[in-house]
TrEMBL record:
<protein>
    <recommendedName>
        <fullName>Photosynthesis system II assembly factor Ycf48/Hcf136-like domain-containing protein</fullName>
    </recommendedName>
</protein>
<dbReference type="InterPro" id="IPR015943">
    <property type="entry name" value="WD40/YVTN_repeat-like_dom_sf"/>
</dbReference>
<dbReference type="InterPro" id="IPR036278">
    <property type="entry name" value="Sialidase_sf"/>
</dbReference>
Amino acid sequence: MAELFSESGQSSDVGGSAPTLRGVFIPGIDRATFPDGLGLVTPLGGGGSLRNYTGYGPSAGGSPDFTQLLDLTNALGSFGSGSGFDVSFEGFVGPTGPPGPPGPSGLPGTGFSFGTPSYGLLALPDDLEKIDGLVTDADRMLYTSGYTLFEEGWEWTERQPAGDSDGQWQAVASDLDGSNLIAAARSGRLWTSSDSGVNWTERQPAGASNKFWTGVASDDTGLKLIAVEDSGVWTSVDSGVNWTERQPTGGATTKWNSVASDSDGSNLIVSKEGSGGQIYTSSDSGVNWTLRDPSGAGDKNWASVDSDSDGSNLIAAYGPGRLYTSSDSGDNWIERQPAGASDHTWRDVVSDNDGSNLIVGNSTRLWTSSDSGVNWTERQPAGNNNYNWWALVSNSDGSVLMAGISTGRLYASTDSGVSWEETQPAGDGDKEWRGLAADSGGHYIIAGVNTGRLYTSIPPISYSQATWAETDVTQVARNFLDDLTQAAQQTTIGLGTGDSPEFTGLTVSGLTASRITATGASKELVSLAKPLIIDEGGTGLSTITNHGILLGSGTAAITPLGVASNGQLPIGSAGADPVLAALTGTTNQITVTNGVGSITLSTPQDIHTTASNFTVAGATISDLTQGSVVFAGASGAISQDNSNLFWDDTNNRLGVGVNSGFDPRVGITISGDMDILHTATEPDDHAFEVDVDAATLGDVKAIDIVYTTGILVAGRDEGIILVNIDETVATGGDVFGLEILSTDGSAEIYGMKVGAVISPIRQDSGTFANPTTATDNTTGPADVAAMKDGDIGTTTAIFENQNEYILIGAAAAFQEVEFILTTGSSGAGIKPTFWYSTAGAHQFTQFTPVDGTNAFRNTGVVAWDASDLTSHGINTDTGTYDIKVIRTRSSLSTPPVLGYAKTAATVEYLWDKNGDVNINSLTLATVAAEGSDVDKFLVDSSGVVKYRTGTQVLSDIGGQAQGDVLDDLNILGAVVSDGQFLVGTGAGAFAYESGA
């Protein structure tokens, strides 16, 4: 004969393990659900065995006492021929929670019939057995002789969120228990369900139109949702009723592809594919985002991302490309190689709750890992062939997995991928499986088909069958059964290991009143002695002195030490009990003051850590290194950093960032950068002052700069001393880039001297004007008006993320751009790279100008030579000559804010190394006499010197034609007639006179 027992599907009390005890089960002493028995009812009489399968509930075939379902563990049955006691149970019900699938209508179990006469203990095991009666021959009993396990497959139900028609179901997600679901259709709509897929509600984050939905995710409650489509990211905190658009890239249109959420919806990860493909994470439910770059190589076609339950362990893959994991929420990433060190077209990646169990699939194979991606095992659900594994899902611990092939079948595993079985939600045919999601236990699965339907499922149900046989009962066993039967007759609560009896009152004979009880050597209850000894958890004392201190004495009673006075403490004494004594001080060193419950230690010298005058003569601190300059660390303790702050006591020289190789002169040596940040507090304030006394010595320098150009190439400009002046708020006054003053004396003082091969001066002359083009992270031609309006009151946040850029352009080529910032970038700046446009659509070549903005940390001018830009041309996207600036720094707490930018096209004037001067004009206060009468310089009325020939000079001063005579440079005119001559008139003038 055989019985069926439930292995899954009802509750934790339903059987789960194969029977291990092949023998007797005593109701009231044991339980059917424990793995040491199967709920046998052992008869004490003789007769045959009979199987009987009945319906639900007790039948009144015997005494009513035997029909109480909650009180049958003590029943001793005596049945004659023809009578009977019938009890049976219904089949188990489906799991609780959201309306689950109904349980089977009832499983045939154990049936027993009592013959004449028969005595036995009756019980109702809480699995699927049915008890009718049992009779065996005298001195015989039943035992399990065989055990077989049976399983039913996955049970699927088609769901129709959008009606009875095919949809391109691309993405699905589930909450913790599978009640709240969300499903997204590519080129379709978004739907949610709160009853495990029975009913659905359309959601419209992006309006009442079809969208290219590509990914959805849910928190554990189904309240916080996130959904992405080609051009947008949306989040909801009320199960999809209301939605908020999020902008990880600052509003730029992009192709979002995958999304994942942690258990409470606070930590999110999204990815995009195609041009500009990046990964972003958020720790505040999507309000703010951080760019992540696992590959370290910029844009990638990120295909899939996933997260553990707290957002710390992440996994991401791009294709064709590589696979990466992170254990610190995306700050750092490690490349993983399930398929070797080569690129693969990854389709889907999935993580369990703690990120240890992973499953990943690409266009050919499937892998699992149980150690967060360190080691991998290839899985072959469909055999050793290449398949396009597009859809994957895992339960919370990675034990239940499901994997779908694009244009193929669906496979499930309940042992972390070791073994697989095909399941057929849509019948025996290939489908384009795209979306899979599961509850935490893997009990409820939702699966979506591209150009197909949506399905939900419950996992397989298993049953076991036990086969019974009879064997002889020895006299010893018979006596044991009689004793157990007698014990069971005396109580209605049972004595089983699984029972939890409750008593409103209990009297036990054989104990002493008002004593603590314990179990004796035979596990009987006994009364303990009074007072309770140490070995039994007592003190061995009847009374204890008030306020006294107690001492241990091994197994003997506790010894009172006595009552302590003010300031007394138990002080150890080697080999003896401690004694009560007070602390004593030392004259001129420590003073002890005893109080009520207190001891105060003080020093008569009044030295303490907060003393304003604390002097120690000749103090030595042993753990300091020679030469270290000590300072207060973060905790306030004295600290040292010998490699970066060092005092050379031999040369009296301080080293900052260096501790060796000093100039053997008194001073300071700094290795590295040095910034001086200063805001004036009074007139004639100095941010950096050098006072030098040459002391009549020669070759003394106040500032000595040794500058090595290295391999400097065309297109790069260097400024050894860069003075960048921000005068945007100035209304007048003079600013001198270099001012040199000297007292009177006999030395020849020169403002500047340059040596051989050095051109003394080069001037770039021009004025700043509003640019024609100004764009923020776009190729154009759309301008940002506030960037080029010359108004500092209208601002634009720029360089908000790594790799963002701006374009500044003008109709003609230019050589300088001023950037007026209202907020400078934090830290070391944006780490900019500079590019100039060449002919074509958004074609740029990198160059290195002089950056007066200090990486956009301050307002300043960026300048270059026209010759540096060898092929500067018009960007056809904007129609202007453009300069492009790109932010390359990945992490920046405060990006810059731009008031406006202006450009300047400059003209170059030069005093070169040969002494030749190219200037626009020259004004001289005094012109010395020129000895030559061939070529002359004249100064016109505006003070401009002109180079003129002799003929031009005569013309300039009114020179006349032949025959004209000049009278004090006044024209006297030509001779009128023959014989005329000049005669003085006496008035300082001349006149023509004739002989008459």
